[in-house]
Amino acid sequence: MALHFERSEFDERLARLLDRMREEKLDAMLLFAQESMYWLTGYDTFGYCFFQTLVVKADGTMTLLTRSADLRQARQTSVIDNVVVWVDRVNADPTLDLKNLLDDMDLLGARIGVEYDTHGMTGRVARLLDNQLSSFGQITDASYLVSGLRLTKSPAEIAHVRRAAELADDALDAALPLIKAGGSEADILAAMQGAVFSGGGDYPANEFIIGSGADALLCRYKAGRRTLDVNDQLTLEWAGASAHYHAAMMRTVVIGEPTPRHRELYRACAETIAAIESVLKPGHTFGDVFDTHARILDERGLTRHRLNACGYSLGARFSPSWMEHQMFHVGNPQPILPDMSLFVHMIIMDSESGTAMTLGHTYLTTEDAPQALSRHGLELIIR
């Protein structure tokens, strides 16, 4: 079987989930998030773009309801013993199949938690689900129950996070010789992704972000490639991925002579990350990290050029995003705990001068100071 963890690891994760379900007085959970299913059972697929759900009862029994295309996928990649297939057909309503399954599992009238906040749950599916189950039992939103359990990583998970960070470093090493006047964004992107694949890594949960010139101020991937000028700027955001676990990095590279504004914004980024490292530890919250970011950049008159978040938790994620639910934004009370993998980024986009500057990498939290997982420093890269 294509399992990345020992059976005992999955048993421990299930025990943690059942404990939380007892605390929330849930008789069952309907998992729609692919990362929840993967974390709990190893089930590895992109079939969540169609209807599927993993039913977890309070007694620990699990049943996957999915399409025929994923029957063998579940058997090959997961510890799930019971797989039920709903049949593709005209006007199919798989939520009716789900209701019948729940009835067979003696869950009529039960209190059932549902993962609504996930890309595996479309608006149409939510409406169909609520229509079928509103009179079947007590349905409650439990979108963040498994997500919260996944925030702290086991030693086996941390091994994959560390490998992902090595692959992210390899990607930067592959890119640097190609970042120069006349260099092609296409070649740079191919080298970075190729380094991850060559190292045994996976596709990332979202596209690598690459943009130069005016596009260096964009925070998302877009189609189209450009050739670098003699004096230019190139923003890169990428991640290594090992068994779907991610370690992200971000840099704005200056080609040619940096402008005074480049140097000014770089200093602000570097000073802010250094300050964040002092609060990225137990005893602080995700909101404290953001407050540190906002305070320093705002003191430098950069309020309108910064973002409203400065990072997030990372882990095993599936398309369309490697970002987890918990982010560094204002007022987030989530405590920082040991063994979290957290991506801290500084993103300053000065549209008035057309200047971009970004800086960031992934940390592993400890009982005290965080550990940067990259072998690369945070110096300004000039090519």
Automatic annotation (TrEMBL):
Please, which domain of life does this record's source organism belong to? Answer: Bacteria
Q: Which residues form the Creatinase N-terminal domain?
A: 13-151
Peptidase M24 domain location is 160-367
* Pfam families from the UniProt entry: Creatinase_N (PF01321), Peptidase_M24 (PF00557)
Under the heading SUPFAM superfamilies, the entry gives:
Creatinase/aminopeptidase, Creatinase/prolidase N-terminal domain
Classification via Gene3D superfamilies: Creatinase/methionine aminopeptidase superfamily, Creatinase/prolidase N-terminal domain
The UniProt entry, under InterPro entries, shows:
Creatin/AminoP/Spt16_N (IPR029149), Creatinase/aminopeptidase-like (IPR036005), Creatinase_N (IPR000587), Pept_M24 (IPR000994), Peptidase_M24B (IPR050659)
Report the PANTHER family cross-referenced here.
AMINOPEPTIDASE (PTHR46112), XAA-PRO AMINOPEPTIDASE P-RELATED (PTHR46112:SF2)
Protein name, entry field? Xaa-Pro dipeptidase
